[in-house]
Amino acid sequence: MLKRISAMMLILVVTLSFASITFSQDYVKKEVKKIEKTAIERSDKETGAIKSISCGPECGFMLKSRNEKELISMTKEHVHKMHKKDVSDKDLMGMIKTEDDHAKK
Question: pLDDT by residue (tens digit) across 52-104?
Fold first, then answer.
């Protein structure tokens, strides 16, 4: 009787360990796919045209980046700290120029 219970326990432990290995492998595969997707999206954003934004000539602030969100957040911070004003994302989007725009002017 004791041998039977021990054998059943051993079978149960082995079965559960294989199930947990399979579960963790699936989890790792899903996480790797998420990371790869994020990296691809990030590289797509960062390989676009270089964009710039600047204050007037009296200030001299200018910022260049491939990432619009970065341009907007850093410019908002600059305007708030240096000019004591708040500016909307929409207004800043209108101020952003691409490198092609600069070459045409």
Answer: 999 888 888 899 888 888 889 999 999 998 899 999 999 999 999 997 644 44
Query: Whole-model pTM?
Result: 0.52
Same domain for 58 and 29, yes or no, is no
Strands of the chain (E only): list them. Answer: 51-54, 62-65, 97-98
Q: How many Cβ atoms are within 10 Å of 64's Cβ, its own excluded? A: 13
What single-letter DSSP state applies at residue 97?
A: E
Query: 26: domain range?
Result: 1-47
Q: Are residues 89 and 60 in the same domain?
A: yes
* Count of C-beta atoms within a 10 Å radius of residue 53: 21
Residues whose CB is less than 8 angstroms from the CB of residue 62 and which lie 6 or more positions away in sequence, other chains included: 52, 53, 54, 55
